[in-house]
Amino acid sequence: TNMVADWLERRLPPLHAAAIPDGLPKPDRILPVLRGTIGDVLADYLNDPDAAMPVMDLRANAAAVDFLASVDLATASGHGVASPDHVLRTKRLPLVLDTRTLRAGEKAIHAAVACFVDDYRAYFDRNVSRFGDEKRMVSPHPCVAWIEGIGVLGIGANAQAANAAADLAEQTLVVIRRAEAAGGFRPIDETDTFACEYWSLEQAKLGKGKLPAFTGRVVLVTGGAGTIGLATAKAFAAQGAQIFLVDRDEHALAAALDRLGRWHGGIACDITADGGPEGAMTACVERFGGLDILVSNAGTAVPGDISTMSDATLRRSFELNFFAHNAFAQAAIRVFRAQGRGGQILFNISKQAVNPGKGLGAYGLPKATTFFLLRQLALELGAEGIRVNGVNADRIRSGLLNDDFIAERAKARGVDEAAYMANNILEKEVEAHHVAKAFVDLACSDRTTAHVMTVDGGNIEAALR
Fold first, then answer.
1. Mean pLDDT for each consecutive 10-residue tract of the chain (465 residues)?
2. Of the residues 120, 123, 363, 420, which is catalytic?
3. DSSP 118-136
4. DSSP per-residue letters across 180-248
5. Among candidates 261, 290, 278, 34, which has minimal Cα distance to 142?
6. Is 123 part of the annotated catalytic residue set?
7. What is the pTM of this model?
């Protein structure tokens, strides 16, 4: 084996670092367009307008970029798979997006996908008649994309499937390069490839098993390493979603991602800094290809009386508790519009928005403004299929309401801590997982927008209706 590897290595031409072509859109502008377009193909195939878009895995490394710059893309992409069993995850051929297509914009990407779909249907029709048993065509969307100047892309129903497709796509580039250097890349032909792809035992698996409700959905959670943020992330992940956490605490973020598992992602950043929300959204898109649900959760209480509070303190609270929410919403809307398949924004509001507490005005004011933002965005975005909802929670053990604060407030009211936390109509403490469930329930409520769900055990003063 080593002798063969050495023999092949000696025949490889050197790879030269490819210059990135001028004028190419960035990956975070390309991937949502491609994801939405493929989502349309899946929706048509499944006859389900609400079908999930795929998850994507981009490999934008130098080896992939240099390979794509060194070959004739049309010829190299038309050969076939490196190994017959690859076809089950990658299809026979990749989608090719060259620099001319990328520069031409959204319509050109739509046209390239449509051409791929037409070609795949023709491939199926050419070959299916040779089989006496009935074959059902798999979805004709691409599973791998070669994107000139960017890299290779794996496309799948979830992050694990996209990762497998991307791994195989990278390996195929290696095989093609080595094979061409050793005399030519000559994989099995179309007829045999079809026989592998539509093998009866693989066909028998189609339509078997029900996927979790949020399979293929990408959910970004701000304040994701905190108590409510992580509980919300875990609730969505349990339903099959891919989670992208945003938190300023790098160590807490790493611990949260460790609990979620390897198929999720995140970034540590200050969301009140210039470009913070946009940078976090770009990282999410480059990790998974797009976004379906934004849970804008991050916030903190700033104590003090408004009558004596400095402008600087109040402005700092607004930066986190309002402006960051607005900036993330705008970044999400850009992605939703590029995908063209709607989306959801979920805000963590707070009962302070409607039932102010003494000494918490600097928290309640921006939260009340975020409450209005929710309704304004719902009004503006409804025609695009973008829903905007929120949760009003109260007295949740978290960074905002830690043990010392609970003990202090309970003592001030002359009750024990348990009674303080259960001071509501139901006389039961409300926990972070109850808030998380409310976010998931709102995400499932496909005919609900401009709504705020109260999760506080019952507080008439904070009731909205």
1. 70 66 90 98 96 97 91 92 90 96 96 98 92 84 97 97 96 87 84 89 66 95 96 98 98 98 97 97 98 96 91 96 98 98 97 87 95 98 98 86 81 86 92 97 97 93 80
2. 363
3. HHHHHHHHHHHTT-SS---
4. HHTT------HHHHHHHHT-HHHHTTTT-SPPPTTTT-EEEEETTTSHHHHHHHHHHHTTT-EEEEEES
5. 34
6. no
7. 0.94
